[in-house]
Amino acid sequence: MALNKEDVQSVLDLIRPSLQADGGDVSLVDVADDGTVTVQLEGACKGCPMSQMTLANGVERILKERIPEVTKVVPA
């Protein structure tokens, strides 16, 4: 099954409130055929020293749990 951009967006929409609670946000930039999802961290998340951990332990983990076709999440 191919990775569906709408599916990825709907999972990001589930994650978004917890990021917004900390003054940040995330937006979907691209979904590649190899399962790589590119996102842009925004607001307080953009430049935060913890943003790489947020990306790997939060966004990537949740996307992989809900959409097995996701292989990795990278910042834009």
Structure, briefly:
By secondary structure, the protein is of the alpha+beta class.
Element order, helices and strands? HEEHE
Instruction: Sketch the major β-sheet.
Output: 3 strands, mixed
- Strands of the largest sheet, in order across it? 1-2-3
- Find the structural class using helix and strand composition: alpha+beta
Report the count of strand segments. Answer: 3
**What's the shape?**
globular
Percent in helix:
40-55%
What's the tally of helices?
2
> Overall mean pLDDT score?
89
Distance between the termini: 25 Å
What Rg is obtained from the alpha carbons, in whole angstroms? 11 Å
Strand-residue fraction? 25-35%
Runs in which pLDDT lies below 50 for 5 or more consecutive residues are none
Task: Show the helix and strand layout.
Elements: H1 5-21, E1 24-31, E2 36-43, H2 51-66, E3 72-75
Parallel strand pairs: 2-3
Antiparallel strand pairs: 1-2
Keywords:
single chain; alpha+beta; three-stranded mixed β-sheet; 2 helices; 26% strand
What does this structure look like?
By secondary structure, the protein is of the alpha+beta class. The chain has helices spanning 5-21, 51-66, and strands spanning 24-31, 36-43, 72-75. Helix 1 (5-21) packs across helix 2 (51-66). The model has no long low-confidence stretch (mean pLDDT 89).
